[in-house]
Design a protein that fits this description.
With 298 residues, the chain is mainly α. It contains 11 helices and no strands. Helix 4 (84-119) packs antiparallel against helix 6. The radius of gyration is 24 Å and the shape is globular. The two termini are 43 Å apart.
Length: 298
């Protein structure tokens, strides 16, 4: 008891009972744990950067190689009846779409696929949730590290997508920096939030189903190969059903935002793009955090 008497008279009763003063608040502890979890994932990324870069590049490279190099070279170019001008316009449309797809796939790969493995055979999630922070913060760390990977993949893919094309095919790119620096981080977080939702909704054995029935429709109906503003002619009885239907797809807003950032083509209004991406981000993150907590505690 003599050791306890060294505390000042104004110290609370809890301090006298425990004999230990808290060194930092719960908020500071959670912040440190969050930073450590993100840093751990980024350290793993740095050590496996070659594998990451290859994975990030493969699909976008094949898309631009086939559509912008092979098809024009063999006389089957896409856009404008195969003319050089039409092929260049299609290249201008495709490059921002390819960057958007790279961000989306990286968000799913970094969060959904990894999380399904950690909930599955590796059981690594059991170690993560022992960090001195709330359970939901572990999921947020996954989202943030996945967003950093999505941003990195965009930086890798854009130069490749912009230079791989046949002679005479030239994507007309014009960078609008204020759109770029605000839209890309928001898009990365929205796509990794989608990855969190998918990774906590599908069992590891059903990942193939996820790609077949969720990811592929998102890609093909997400404005990767076309502008949303050009879908109006697809109609039934004067109603542009496809242009309306794709509005439930989060990728269409990222693709259109990328076209606003990298080109002067017509695109969806930015006053629609930003709120839609923010809304999807809140929706996916909220549902994903709820599912994550349920999976951890079950």
């Amino acid at each position: 008891m003599a050791a306890f008497d060294t505390f000042p008279p104004h110290a609370g009763p809890a301090v006298h009972r425990a004999g230990v003063l808290p060194t930092r608040s719960a908020v500071a502890s959670s912040r440190s744990a969050l930073a450590a979890l993100v840093l751990r994932d980024l350290t793993v990324l740095r050590k496996n950067f070659g594998e990451f870069a290859l994975r990030a590049l493969m699909q976008p490279f094949l898309l631009v190689f086939v559509f912008l190099y092979v098809f024009p070279t063999i006389g089957q170019g896409v856009g404008g009846g195969g003319s050089a001008g039409g092929e260049s316009q299609f290249a201008t449309v495709l490059v921002p779409g390819v960057v958007s797809v790279a961000i989306m796939f990286q968000g799913i790969q970094a969060v959904a696929v990894q999380m399904s493995q950690e909930f599955g055979f590796t059981r690594e999630i059991e170690d993560r949730v022992q960090a001195p922070c709330p359970i939901w913060l572990v999921a947020v760390a996954k989202v943030l590290s996945g967003a950093a990977q999505g941003l990195t993949s965009a930086l890798i893919v854009l130069p490749i997508a912009a230079v791989v094309h046949a002679p005479g095919v030239h994507p007309d790119l014009s960078v609008h920096w204020w759109v770029l620096v605000t839209l890309v981080p928001l898009g990365c977080i929205a796509m990794t939030s989608l990855g969190l939702l998918l990774g906590t909704s599908f069992q590891p054995r059903n990942i193939g189903v996820m790609f077949g029935f969720v990811v592929l429709p998102i890609v093909f109906l997400g404005g990767t190969y076309y502008q949303w503003t050009r879908l109006a002619p697809v109609e039934v009885g004067g109603f542009p059903w496809l242009q309306v239907l794709v509005l439930v797809n989060p990728l269409i807003y990222l693709s259109e935002g990328m076209r606003a950032a990298f080109t002067d083509l017509s695109h969806m209004p930015l006053y629609v793009v930003y709120p839609a991406l923010l809304g999807f981000c809140v929706l996916f993150l909220g549902l994903g955090l709820r599912n994550f907590r349920r999976r951890v505690l079950s």
